[in-house]
Amino acid sequence: MASPGKKAFALRLDPALHAAVERAAAADLRSVNAEIECLLREALARRGVQVPAAKPRDGG
């Protein structure tokens, strides 16, 4: 289930790409979803696309 305020959608990935993202996520102590979001933000920033910072999650 998506977090409140987050857009949920299906994403189909090549299994090798998913495995690489999964390894990167584990190294960064993130979920695969959080890693993909981080990678997308980094890629957009390199292209000069400004994305507002994510709101911090509530602890409870």
State mean pLDDT (0 to 100 scale). 90
Number of strands: 0
- Give helix and strand order, one letter per element, not per position: HH
What Rg is obtained from the alpha carbons, in whole angstroms? 13 Å
Number of helices: 2
What fraction of residues sit in β-strands? under 5%
Cα shape:
globular
Structural class: mainly alpha
Weakly predicted, low-confidence segments: none
Give the helix level as a range of percent: 40-55%
Biggest sheet layout: none
Distance between the termini: 17 Å
Q: How would you describe what is shown here?
A:
- With 60 residues, the protein is an all-alpha fold.
- It has a domain at 15-46.
- The protein contains two helices and no strands.
- The protein has helices spanning 15-27, 32-46.
- Helix 1 packs across helix 2.
- The two termini are 17 Å apart.
Give me the secondary-structure topology.
Blueprint: H1 15-27, H2 32-46
Summarize it.
This protein is mainly α and 60 residues long.
List keywords for this structure.
mainly alpha, 60 residues, globular
